[in-house]
Amino acid sequence: AEAALRQSQKMEAVGQLTGGVAHDFNNLLTIIRSSVDFLRRPDLPEERRRRYMDAVSDTVDRAAKLTSQLLAFARRQTLKPEVFDVGRRLSGVADMIDTVTGARIRVVTERPDRACFVRADLSQFETALVNMAVNARDAMAGEGTLTLRLTCGCPLPPIRGHGGSPLPFAAVSLSDTGSGMEAGLLGRIFEPFFTTKEVGRGTGLGLSQVFGFAKQSGGDIDVVSTVGGGTTFTLYLPEAEPDGDIRPAEQEAVPAPAA
Ligand code: ADP
């Protein structure tokens, strides 16, 4: 049953992905189609002929880039879950986030002092948090505070109108003091290839990775945002029993939580 559930969650993510790609591909094909139609005209001035040829060439390049992004995304779907203590991983994650956000964004970490184990792909977990941090950085236009907070043993609230579970989850939230998002935008951000960033700056795949990772790990991702006030993304992962591999000493070496 668990495998079937995982499979259906995977299919959900893949379904969303293919829908997004099909839509983008269609747009590109429309550009190529209409350019070729113009190019067929015998009386087309040389200057316009060159312009349409460039449009076809550029659009083919964009389609090729889309394909390679899709392949990279598909490759990331293979997860290697392991049991780890989220709290112990946070300082490493905060360091990575520091690197991507730069000196003018303050990164604050808050965590409880008890261990909190989850079973998930560790590198995907780190990637998900870095992806969210990159967005937070972009939303803060270079200045602000990013708070990385871990809460253990919380129930999973219903998200996007469904789900919810009384079982203990680890909740890792990332709050920024950035631009925030309107409701219309919020409804689309997890769609693959959805981006509001300039061509070349955004791929629209960051939050798709986060979404796919959360679902495939048996968790979920929630977002709360206020225009002009900032945004909080919360990644929920089901808590797991510590593995036999984890030595008790590792579970105890937890520094005092940040204020
Ligand atoms: P990308 O970052 O490449 O655009 P994502 O899937 O990571 O792709 O994000 C999709 C869109 O969601 C972004 O283009 C942006 O408009 C919006 N977004 C994501 N995170 C935030 C945030 N923290 N604050 C404001 N907008 C955000």
From TrEMBL:
Histidine kinase domain span: 20-241
What GO MF terms are annotated?
Answer: phosphorelay sensor kinase activity
Q: What name appears for this protein in its UniProt entry?
A: histidine kinase
Instruction: Tell me what organism the protein belongs to.
Output: Methylobacterium dankookense
- Please name the taxonomic classification of the source: Bacteria, Pseudomonadati, Pseudomonadota, Alphaproteobacteria, Hyphomicrobiales
Query: Keywords assigned by UniProt?
Result: Coiled coil, Kinase, Phosphoprotein, Transferase
